Amino acid sequence: MRRKIMERLKKWRNAKNRLPLLLYGARQVGKTYILREFGRSCFENTVYVNFEEDKALAGYLEVKLTPAYIIKVIEEQYGVKIYPQKTLIIFDEIQSCEHALTSLKYFAEQAPEYCVVAAGSLLGVAINRQQFSFPVGKVQLENLYPLDLEEYLWARDKDMLVDLIRQCYTTNKPLPEALHKEALNLYEDYLLTGGMPAVVAVALNDGDADELKRLIY
Q1: Are 121 and 192 found together in one domain?
Q2: What is the residue range of 13's domain?
Q3: Which contacts qualify for 129-136: CB closer than 8 Å, 24 or more apart?
Q4: What is the C-alpha separation between 119 and 195, in angstroms, rounded?
């Protein structure tokens, strides 16, 4: 699905004084999907680390937090080569590893040439920082929310309708009646999905009522 945050991610990648990026957002808003898509479309390769699943790597980070050490461990653990500027490193569910969160500070100070992004659903709520502090001023913060109405219309292949709505808003002219009715119907559908990507995907693909209820409730 086309998301507006992708443009901000591309801008971050090309920034002169780039800091590690920390992506906030509730569960199921598409953080992992958008970061993987960002890696696929903008980098030569991607390394994905999920700290809820990879307890072994979390243990290695208890030994040392220097970027050179972390890069070496990840390369050995995942059997991939990490290149500055060319590899996207994704730290997912980073709230599960306080050492990984703190390591972002050292990437910012010692190895800014590496592209490091992190995501977590419970940052600031569930993280247990016993010895290490939040890397204040050493990360760029971004937020990802459910799809807004324009993103939902893009997912419905209604790009022309989006453009027309924008045009009418700018010129302070009403939509043609038929298009206005269509837009209102789509808006009602959007409200039912809540803009959650998984719900939208089911609604677009098959509209299975039971599956929609499970995802919504």
Answers
A1: no
A2: 5-143
A3: 129/98, 129/101, 130/98, 131/98, 132/98, 132/99, 132/101, 132/102, 133/102, 134/101, 134/102, 135/20, 135/101, 135/102, 135/104, 135/105, 135/108
A4: 20
* Full-model pTM: 0.85
pLDDT at 216: 53
129 and 160 share one domain: no
- On whether both 70 and 45 belong to a single domain, the answer is yes
Answer whether residue 207 shows pLDDT above 70.
no
Query: CB-side exposure of 71: number of CA atoms within 13 Å?
Result: 19
- The pLDDT value recorded for residue 4 is 96
Number of domain units in the chain: 2
| Three-state DSSP class for residue 158 | coil
- Among the listed residues 14, 18, 57, the one whose alpha carbon sits nearest the alpha carbon of residue 38: 14
Residues written for the chain? 217
Q: Using pLDDT thresholds of 50, 70 and 90, give the confidence band for residue 140.
A: very high
